Structures are given as structure tokens and as C-alpha cells.
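Design a sequence for this backbone.
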């Protein structure tokens, strides 16, 4: 007869230990992979949202001053250029207006303000108002008191760390225009290590008188 021997306790414990080590290694790799995937997804979310806001802003700023081909440039009342900017610590504002419709004696202008407020430095707002007149510099700086403003980012997901504006006037013999640079810094709420800073430069298409 063939003599059968069972597995010893030591062999069983050894096999169990090796199995636990192997499972731990695989689990650790899986968790690390999941963490990297999550971080990459969060980075892409931030980059795409920030880029989309800047692209929207750039496209609209290029309309600043448009008067429908009437030979003049629309400017915020009291502003020197077609784009009016203010910038300071935890504060930034860019405002402009352009014609959107005209019928006989009736005209409608779109007044636009992008603003980082000193009382809400982690948010960026867009304020839009369509009316028969162009707003003044005082009115655009007081837009926060109106109901015409919306946040550009979900305040539970994305925060604003920077909104800086600089403007340079480019003059020729007969006219002048403005070159505007906008820099926007954002971060993920609760994950400060995931952040981005993007910017654009735009030259006004609509020359001023």
C-alpha cells in the first residue's frame, strides 16, 4: 500500500504567509494605480474647466467696442479704452460693451463684467446686462449688488487663486487700440496640490476714435 502523508502545519502556515504577502502587494499596486488615476482625472478636470473659461472670455473680449460698423468704438462710459480693467490684491475686474442689435432708433448693448471680488477672492464672476445704454465705470464696479452675476466655477469644486489683468495701449497716427493680458490661477477645493495657471493676450479688433 502507498503511504499518504498530510501537509504539515508549518508548510500550511508558510503557504498562507506567502499568499497574504502576494495579496498585499497586488492590493498596494491596485490602490496606488487608483490614486494616480484619480489625481490625473482631477488634474484634467481643472485644466479643462480653466481653459474653457479663458477661451470664452477671450472670444468675447474680442467683441469689445463693436458698434455694428458705424465707424466708432463702444466704450464703458468714463473708460479710456474699449476694455476697462482694474486689478489689485485678491481683486480683478475687466469690463466692456458692444452692440448686439439695432433697429431704427432702437439699440441694445451688451455690457459684460468678469470679476474677482475682494470679499470672495476664491471665486470668479461673470455679470451681463443687455440694455439700450452703455454702463459707466461706476456701474460696472457695483455690478456685485445686482442679480446679473453668476459664478464661473462650482465653488465646491474649483477655487480661484489669481485673476490678474494688465493693459497696454498701442497707438498709431490716426487711432489707438489696447492689448490686454489676462492671467487666471485655479485649484481644486481641498486638494491645493492640484492647481494650474493659464493666461492669454488679446489685441482689440475694434479701433477707437
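Sequence:
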Amino acid at each position: 500500500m502507498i503511504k499518504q502523508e498530510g501537509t504539515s502545519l508549518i508548510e500550511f502556515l508558510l503557504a498562507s504567509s506567502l499568499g497574504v504577502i502576494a495579496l498585499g502587494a497586488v492590493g498596494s499596486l491596485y490602490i496606488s494605480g487608483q490614486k494616480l488615476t484619480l489625481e490625473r482625472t482631477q488634474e484634467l478636470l481643472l485644466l479643462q474647466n480653466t481653459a474653457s473659461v479663458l477661451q470664452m472670455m477671450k472670444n468675447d473680449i474680442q467683441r469689445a467696442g463693436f458698434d455694428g460698423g458705424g465707424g466708432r468704438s463702444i466704450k464703458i462710459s468714463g473708460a479710456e479704452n474699449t476694455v476697462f480693467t482694474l486689478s489689485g490684491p485678491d481683486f480683478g475686474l475687466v469690463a466692456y460693451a458692444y452692440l448686439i442689435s439695432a433697429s431704427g432708433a432702437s439699440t441694445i448693448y451688451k455690457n459684460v463684467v468678469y470679476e474677482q471680488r475682494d470679499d470672495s477672492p476664491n471665486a470668479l464672476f461673470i455679470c451681463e446686462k443687455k440694455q439700450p445704454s452703455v454702463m459707466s465705470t461706476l456701474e460696472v464696479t457695483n455690478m456685485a449688488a445686482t442679480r446679473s452675476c453668476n459664478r464661473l466655477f462650482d465653488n465646491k469644486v474649483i477655487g480661484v487663486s489669481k485673476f490678474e489683468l494688465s493693459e497696454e495701449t498701442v497707438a498709431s497716427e490716426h487711432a489707438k487700440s489696447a492689448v490686454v493680458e489676462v492671467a487666471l490661477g485655479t485649484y481644486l477645493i481641498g486638494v491645493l496640490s492640484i492647481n494650474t495657471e493659464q493666461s492669454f493676450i488679446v489685441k482689440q479688433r475694434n479701433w477707437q476714435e
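The two ends are 112 Å apart (CA to CA).
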